[in-house]
Amino acid sequence: MTSYRLDKGGLIDRSKPLSFTFDGKGMIGVEGDSLASALLANGQMLLGRSFKYHRPRGVISAGASEPNALMTVAQGGRTEPNTRATMQELYEGLVAQSQNRWPSLNIDISSLNSLLSPFLSAGFYYKTFMWPAGLWERLYEPLIRRAAGLGKATYEADPDRYEKCWAHCDLLIVGGGATGLAAALTAGRAGARVILVDENAMIGGGLLSETATIGGVSAVEFAGRTVAELESLPNVQVLSRTTAFGWYDGNVFGAVERVQKHASEPRPEVPVERLWRIVAKQAILAAGAEERPLIFGGNDIPGVMMASAMRAYLNRYGVAPGKSVAVFTTNDSGYTLARDLEKAGLRLVAIVDSRRSGATAGVYEGSARIINGGFVPDAEGGKALSSITILQDGRKEKLAVDSLAMSGGFSPVVHLAYHRGGRPEWSDAEATFVAPEDHKGLSLAGAAAKASGLAGCLEAGARKAEALLGKLEIKADPAAFGAVEGDIVAAPTKPVWIIPGIKGKAFVDFQNDVHHRDIGLAVREGYGHVELAKRYTTNGMATDQGKLSNVNAIGLLAEARGVSPADVGTTTFRPFYTPVSFGALAGTSHGKHFQPVRKSPLHDWAVKNGATFVETGLWYRSAWFPLAGEKTWRESVDREAKNVRRNAGLCDVSMLGKIEITGKDAAEFLDRVYCNAFRKLPVGKARYGLMLREDGFIFDDGTTSRLEDERFFMTTTTAYAAGVMNHLEFCAQALWPELDVRLASVTDQWAQMAIAGPKSRLILQRIVDQDISNEAFPFLGAKDVSLFGGKLSGRLFRISFSGELAYELAVPAGYGEAAADALMEAGNEHGICAYGVEALSVLRIEKGHVTHNEINGTVVPTDLGFGKMVSATKVDFIGKRLLEREGLNDPNRLQLVGVVPLDSGTSFRSGAHVLEKGAEATLENDQGYISSSCYSPHVGSTIGLALVKRGSSRHGEEVQVWNGLLNEFTAARLCHPIFVDPANEKLKG
Amino acid sequence: MASLIPCPHCGQRPREEFTVKGAALVRPAADAGRNAWLDYVYLRDNPRGRYDEHWHHTSGCRRWLVVTRDTATHEIEGARDTAARTETVE
Amino acid sequence: MSVSAIEHRAALGGKAPLISTGVTLRTLPEGHVLHLLSASADSDVSATISAVLGCDALTKRSVSPGQWFVVGDEPLSAAALADIVKKVKPHAEVVDQSHGRVRIAIAGAKATSVLAKGTAADLALNVFPVGHATTTLIGHIATHITRVSEDGFELMVLRGFAESLWEELAELSVEFR
Amino acid sequence: MRYSAFSILLNGLRGNTAWKPAWRAPKPKPHYDVIIVGGGGHGLATAYYLAKEFGIRNVAVLEKAYIGSGNVGRNTTIIRSNYLLPANNPFYELSLKLWEGLEQDLNFNAMISQRGVLNLFHSDAQRDAYMRRGNAMRLHGVDADLLDRTKVRQMLPFLDFENARFPIHGGLIQRRGGTARHDGVAWGYARGADSMGVDIIQECEVTAIRRENGKVTGVETSKGFIGCSKLAVAVAGNSSQVAAMADMRLPIESHVLQAFVSEGLKPFIDCVVTFGAGHFYVSQSDKGGLVFGGDMDGYNSYAQRGNLSTVEHVIEAGKAMIPALSRVRVLRSWGGIVDMSMDGTPIIDRTHIDNLYLNAGWCYGGFKATPGSGFCFAHLIARNEPHAVTREMRLDRFERGYLVDEKGQGAQPNLH
Ligand SMILES: Cc1cc2nc3c(=O)[nH]c(=O)nc-3n(C[C@H](O)[C@H](O)[C@H](O)COP(=O)(O)OP(=O)(O)OC[C@H]3O[C@@H](n4cnc5c(N)ncnc54)[C@H](O)[C@@H]3O)c2cc1C
Ligand SMILES: NC(=O)c1ccc[n+]([C@@H]2O[C@H](COP(=O)([O-])OP(=O)(O)OC[C@H]3O[C@@H](n4cnc5c(N)ncnc54)[C@H](O)[C@@H]3O)[C@@H](O)[C@H]2O)c1
Ligand SMILES: Cc1cc2nc3c(=O)[nH]c(=O)nc-3n(C[C@H](O)[C@H](O)[C@H](O)COP(=O)(O)O)c2cc1C
Ligand SMILES: [Zn+2]
Description:
The complex is a heterotetramer. Chain B is mainly β. Chain B contains one helix and six strands. Chain B has one domain (4-81): Folate-binding fold. In chain B, the strands form two sheets. A four-stranded antiparallel sheet of chain B has the order 3-4-5-6, with no helix packed on it. Chain B has a two-stranded antiparallel ribbon with strand order 1-2. Chain B is globular, with a radius of gyration of 14 Å. Chain D is α/β, with parallel strands linked by helices. Chain D is built from ten helices and 18 strands. The complex binds flavin-adenine dinucleotide, nicotinamide-adenine-dinucleotide, flavin mononucleotide (FMN) and zinc ion.
């Protein structure tokens, strides 16, 4: 016998069939079905295989806690492994595959593992597979890995859209059952900003499978009406299919909305999932309570399920679990199901009640056989339940049944309340772990707070909303509802952790195949602490995070250790309440949009000139500008570099950080943030500056120009632009708030161009209105200039990175492209070329100028030959005091040197190390490393800058440049780090 | 609660708008002894509990704040502009 | 040299407005953005500056304590700028950011919903009224937001990020188009 | 009881009822030669090597919760020795060598898996930095290989090679690097130490350090006073707290670092990969979960949990590196408190207080150091002088100016 669809009842639309496939087999469900209910309606009881023993498994729950019915849904880039069939809404054309079986779900070879189970007990792998050592990676581990895991993920890219969203509210309500609805209504009517989230497609929680009435209307109708009213209120937002997965600091809740996971064809303009970050002034956790399984042999056989789940299939989905049903319960709630089963006309074989006294008087008026003080120690069957053994007063009896409902009592769903620390405590009276009602910013209500009965939950929700809004000074009247009828209110009963007389395997954690003996073994082996037991047995570590198993495992641990569950305690609750996709958490950030792009105002100019771009931080920088016929990047770069030294070139340096510094104390401020002096810098002059960190190491470098007495223009390196600005703001605001200094980042205001080369002045003069002759505008000049006959104004700096006669011209960004075009045009007859960062790098290495290749956070000024820049007279500057330490002045420190190969036909690269000539290649013999290198068309060979022990005193020494990674070993000579024009004649001419 | 920082100028903003630097310490005088400087740069109380630290509202008002936060609970007691030596904002 | 063609080029030049019933995105003219920085954050300084410039909260937008942006659709001539500098100078420094910042207008019934996909700032009208301005992250991009009407905002962003922000907003508003 | 396939068979046939505790649960003795504070990987390994290599067996490990409750039980399990600086590289290589024989040594399968650690690079500058590092490794005889884009693509075709914001240029791989089962390491050392007589005392929190005449004589604990001749502190994220009991301030901040595991999957990714264009690294556990992590949250914390913004930051980078992760679901996130030192390098040293030894500052990278740290710390405690490979991991390096700063970030722990 199997499960089947009833002809009537349920919140489904039998007139709207939906076809889908399971393992390739076509099936029909109806609108309103979950994948699980549709499979059951098709008589498909066997839905998956367990993790370790590959036991046949069906569905055990009807909601988020499902450990068994996991399947891979959809195909191609939409493939989703490990989807809980209970939470997946059915849609037309859905394709589902079972998992963790080979060759098929029915015949799974690995189910033989069950036979080996005595040797596969908890933690067995820690005890073996050690010999021979080499076989672990090659044999054992691949075998284990292939057997382990669950579904198979795709390698295809996801075609769908995701996004994130922030929301703010006075009151967030998690859970849309009776409690949550009552709370939302109360708060919504009071005008508060309310957000109600529920993980299900339909709001209503337990109401949706309830047969009781509220104020004379059915629970289902009550839910519908309430939701309709809430949706009509502009101050209330109702989010179905939305799971609150985490509670974070600041009362921020993470939630994920499955916007289109139920759509056959997701609309491309709408995300499939949306991540919500909800900032709530107050929140109510109305997440309900979870029914606990009972631990008996064969409790995992398809056909055994939670009583509340069976009730949901029956009442909500119109699906019968089988033809002959038994109920095994430890408390009154099992009778609710019994009553509904009988009402639906199913054959109720027996109600086995562990309590000797049986049900509370008046609870059950049906006709089923009731076995008080009875237990089900074992269930039998392979891929479907066939019978159960009943034990009563030592007597055993076998009953043929095809489905069995179990109820071991209820545990409040308190998960979220402990994401920010703390643990629930055991209550003997409630026979479960309970949480205090009020946490800071989050309160529990309803079944989550042990309120019992529908009426109790309605009232609890309304009252809690009223109280919390009170804290926000919003007056609310608790919503009132009519009388509840037909609800069985189950009082807590003493839990039965383990059913006496078990023969078969009794599972605690279904998905991870942890059975009751594993728990005992863990205690015996010293892993009895609840956290150690979890890790040793893996109980609670599966995709369901122990929603059904944790409390039972604690009960078993308590029994095995001979203590109370209070002494065992729980493991830690952590996000995610249920698993969340990478897609949702990444939102729109992926692929090319992983990070925003920052574009130079000269970007289009560079494109026009044929630039090849390179990512530099968020910028795209022009790397080189290939001409027709140039086959390698080196050809282009050599040409550009040569041309700059021969004629002139234009390079986009707009991405340098630029900071305008004003205020009465601007000069004093600069004096404190640079290690060299700035106070006396004359107006109209630029100066190279070195900024240290407080620990004495170099932070950044750049030039700063004095435009007016109290106005400076600082440039920083591209990489550190943001860091320097933050640092200067720190200095100004935190260290020296008494100084009048004002900082404005103007990086994006200016398009900045380096115009370098012997012809640069000629070219520039054609567009600059003022005289820029050497006399009128000498080296390190800086001034505002008028351009194009007064059409534009800009800033001109006579500074040189290339070592040539050179300028940097800044023009307002919107005119950058026009100015660059004009310069190229003006320079045409002088042979100007565009050059990129590669040629720029060649030129600067030839001149021994350092960048962050050298300023890598571990160098001090003397290492780079900048010792003289460190002011000896300034009383204070950042980095002054700790620069004095012994280690920072050790003569053995790495210092900047130049390197050239002995044979110009050979080369080396950055990242190679330097060894003494003939020295053995060992770490002890390591003398330093090449920090920058390039082919220098002017020297005619590779050249490099290196940081080498005592480097500055070793010029002329022959060394070997050692690159073991690439098998390149180059005889070379250390030399002065300036390869071109050491007397600096060109740049001053 | 380091997922929202209550900026005294901008209100509650998410952590990603901020840069956190570390303990809000007083920089020693230029002529303070070597040990004072070593302490300042390297040694930390690193308390479990109440802690004053520097946060920069980098993608907001760009002010440096002193945030008083509990390192055990992440609860924020208040935040003030580092230049405004007194007032705090809840 | 002949310089007939010193043309201004807008960072978002050529981006046609994206218009729908839910939300409209359009680029704003690259007029002027002046960054005012005063030594003090006192509110009377702010009032004084507003008075000397004769501007309202939609023109002079708050940036951070003691800092404002003065914004307009028209580019300023050198003389006009000099005039403003002269007026403001006793109270604040002026740094021209007209080219460094780019403005985008977003408006419509769904404008707040689109922005909420990017920013954590609460944009509810009573919390963020017309004239209110703040800098915040939209996605990964720092953006200065000013509410200019009940359902309209002006966004101001570093020029280099303008295109990325535009694309991000276009992406986030797709579902309302 | 020795572990083997045979013992499993035998015990299995007997219903698995005869297994003995992996370690005892002893009552503390009044006095030990050495007390180790902290039942993490380092503390347990120290005890193990003290007993095994240095013959000091009258040792107790005091753990405030359960063993492995600290970072050893919450890290992303990566082991490697791909360090740049000569002050670090030989130490981590010693550690990796110890890993290589560990399971046989301990008779405990800690699932040490040398599946390779690949660091991707996305720019020339990153390549040069990896080149420098790879060569430093080679100079010390450590395996390192530079892979170009094509080779990386052959290895991991599902990385984003088509549409990446920061295209992958290549990678540096250490094939001997890999992973080890975090808990297994703690348990293996605990069992090994216990078998040589070490007392492992759980739920025993050290609350004060008793000093007489400037010398440490014992500790106050939640189980009373326990005397010792030498006190060795290996409490990772709690280093400052315990040091404060001896009136010491350390160049350390405690920060929260999060880690994550996905739902179980069939084999998806073979090696450990780190993204060079964002904060993300990933490997797959033997159980099938993708274990991954990224950057620290950035603020001081003792809370063992982080915030959502960091989660998003990490996951964004993850999806950027492997687009196909989009539909994979994250199962759980947690945090650990890491002891970030001011230069990013650990401290294994004596202190200015007699009998007090310190092992701290492991940042987010001390799991791989576990065997080496235990071995060298035991050496220091037993011999009173540092092991050669930890010579520069001194406490006074900050005042002397001999920093060991792999990243060059200076004295700001959250940047290391
Ligand atoms: C998320 C995360 C990921 C990481 N990933 C890696 C990685 O991939 N590779 C890697 O190499 N490293 C990694 N690390 C770092 C690594 O885990 C740690 O550096 C290392 O585990 C620290 O040493 P330990 O094992 O001894 O520390 P712990 O395990 O933290 O041990 C310290 C112990 O001291 C105990 N203790 C503290 N105070 C007291 C007291 N007063 N009395 C008694 N006991 C006390 C604690 O309870 C704790 O058990 C990661 C860390 C984290 C948090
Ligand atoms: N107290 C008990 O032990 C107990 C036991 C069984 C039934 N009940 C009955 O159940 C009803 C309880 O009503 P209720 O409203 O408190 O609970 P409920 O179970 O009806 O509703 C809770 C809702 O919250 C959803 N939810 C849980 N966690 C979520 C999350 N993180 N994100 C989004 N949604 C989440 C659930 O899916 C469910 O829809 C009453 O009728 C009560 O009598 C109580
Ligand atoms: C390498 C590794 C793999 C893990 N795999 C899982 C897992 O598969 N399932 C799970 O629930 N938790 C897993 N965890 C997380 C632990 O459950 C736990 O969160 C972590 O050890 C921190 O402990 P705590 O959460 O108890 O504080 C894993 C942890 C680590 C370090
Ligand atoms: Zn702010």
